[in-house]
Amino acid sequence: MDLAVKREVFKLKQAFTISRGSRTEAQVLTVSIHDGVYWGWGECVPYARYGETLDSVNAQIQSLPSEFDHQNLYHLLPPGAGRNAVDCALWDLEAKQSNRRVWELAGLPAPRPEITAYTLSLDSPEVMRAQAKQNAKRPILKIKLGTSDDMPRLEAVRSGAPDARIIVDANEGWTVELYSDLAPHLARLGVDMVEQPLPADNDDALLGIERPLPICADESCHDRASLPSLKGKYDMINIKLDKTGGLTEGLALREAALSAGYSVMVGCMMGSSLAMAPAQLLAQGMSIVDLDGPLLLAEDRERPLFYDKFGVHPSKRELWG
Questions:
Q1: Integer-rounded Cα radius of gyration of the chain
Q2: Count of CB atoms within 10 A of residue 199's CB?
């Protein structure tokens, strides 16, 4: 197999801010695998929070031997962005080789559109109110918070979108004291769920505290090996393929999490439609879907995913799978 890696940049419609910083573009690695006849494609977003850079992930991918499959890839690369792009490219290649869709190869039902959250980035209460008002007709709004002064932002978003379903992502930005103070207000304002309120290395503080609304693990949950440490702290997990290291592990994590009694959210990094396509397959029937990456881009792939009032639609063969 001929494997190639290409760095690509997609500009955002506007600056996107979370508690850890801002960005104006999505920097991705696009992986292609060629068997001499067919091309398989995958995309990943290296994430500094997990010690990844474009260079380090590219080096991981380039270290692979000339022959590999889903099973030995699991042992050749660690969970993370690099393995994700290669694993998804393998799925795409196998679909083309067999003239079948990935969902058929994986023994899954035919996918349908899934309603997705739309993310409002961290800003002043006034700006976030305006963002909420502009997007008030969207069924789910995800609010980026994670500072010591978040209550005015939350109130502003709720006033701007009084009927929207709201979920909150603190991106590890709160202390347990701050979260305990905010939680009753989150419930009062009709927030459905709070994502990763505490730093992953300090989330033992979640044990035994009151839970007026569900808590979702993001940075604390990567793959199946993460599940034992989440018990008693979280009610839901956020599966992202750039954390699991691909669709193969993502499907296995979904099954294990559901069997363990967790609700499942399927999320994404800031990537293009190529990154969202396998995640859309994983997201079928899950409690929360957060695959809005392409909606935040000023530019996308040539054959992007289709979004409408029914949500994000499954990919066409020309894009992936």
A1: 19
A2: 16
What gap in Å lies between CA 215 and CA 139, rounded to an integer? 20
Query: Alpha carbon of 27 to those of 101, 115, 149, 162: distances in Å?
Result: 28, 26, 30, 34
Q: What is the pTM of this model?
A: 0.96
The answer to whether 154 and 134 are in contact (CB under 8 A) is: no
Q: Is 70 left (phi over 0), alpha (psi -120 to 50) or beta?
A: alpha
Catalytic site residues?
144, 240
Chain centroid to Cα 317, Å, comes to 22
CB contact at 8 A, 136 and 163? yes
Average pLDDT value for residue range 310-316: 97
Q: Which of 67, 32, 28, 33 is nearest to 45 (CA)?
A: 28
Q: How many CB atoms lie within 10 A of CB 277?
A: 28
**Contact status, residue 35 vs residue 97, Cβ threshold 8 Å:** yes
pLDDT of residue 16: 87
